[in-house]
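Collaborator request, handled under Task 6.
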Amino acid sequence: LLLAALIPGVLLFEGTAQRSDELTAQAERQSHAATRLAERERTMDVATRHLEDATRQLAGLEQSLSARQQDYENARRAAATAIAEREEALEQLTATKDKARLQMTRADRAEARLAVQQQAVADAQKRLATADAALAALRSPQMRIITLAAGPKAGKAWGRIVWDQQAATWNLVALDLPPAPAGRTYELWFITDKQQKIAAGTFNVNAKGEGALAVNIPAGIGALAVAAVTDEPAGGVAVPTGSIQLVGQL
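Structure tokens returned to the collaborator:
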């Protein structure tokens, strides 16, 4: 009977102990869960702080990227402006060069025309001086006129020399003489009775074949027998080398 009376108490005690163990285990589990939860919360806090730091860094990067994009856009606009200004400057330079070339061309043409006019004036002055000298020779009491005939290759050319024996001058007028080729000129010669050939001077003719030359006869060259005109290299030579264009006996 005593054992029977104790069995319920023992069972109750065992049940209570088991319940206590379960509660203890549950409390431990809850404690572990709370600990894990606290650790997770701490981890979440750390992660949140990291996320906030990353967000701030990202915001800084975005701001830096925006600033760089703005700098790039400014640089692009500046480069586009510089390129446009350079192209405009090149166009202006090209226009200036073209204008300068045109002005130079006009200046060259004007200079060429001036040179032609100056040469024409010089030729006219030379012809006038020759005409004056010839007129003076014609007035001389010791004047002679020498007719020059064309040489074998001179076609219909002819000429005259007004010889002022008192003033010792020759005034040559050549007519219908073809213009000398480039690099060539006409040269007048004194030829003595001893066949000594002395250069008197060079001259050219105009498009009409007209030319003139006034020269002084050197003293002491002896008696003159022939007057001749040859074609020679430009500048003249000391000894005749070209063909005879005009010739006349004195």
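The cover message to the collaborator said: "The chain has a mean pLDDT of 83. The domain at 142-249 is CATH 2.60.40 (Immunoglobulin-like). Please let us know whether this matches your experimental observations."
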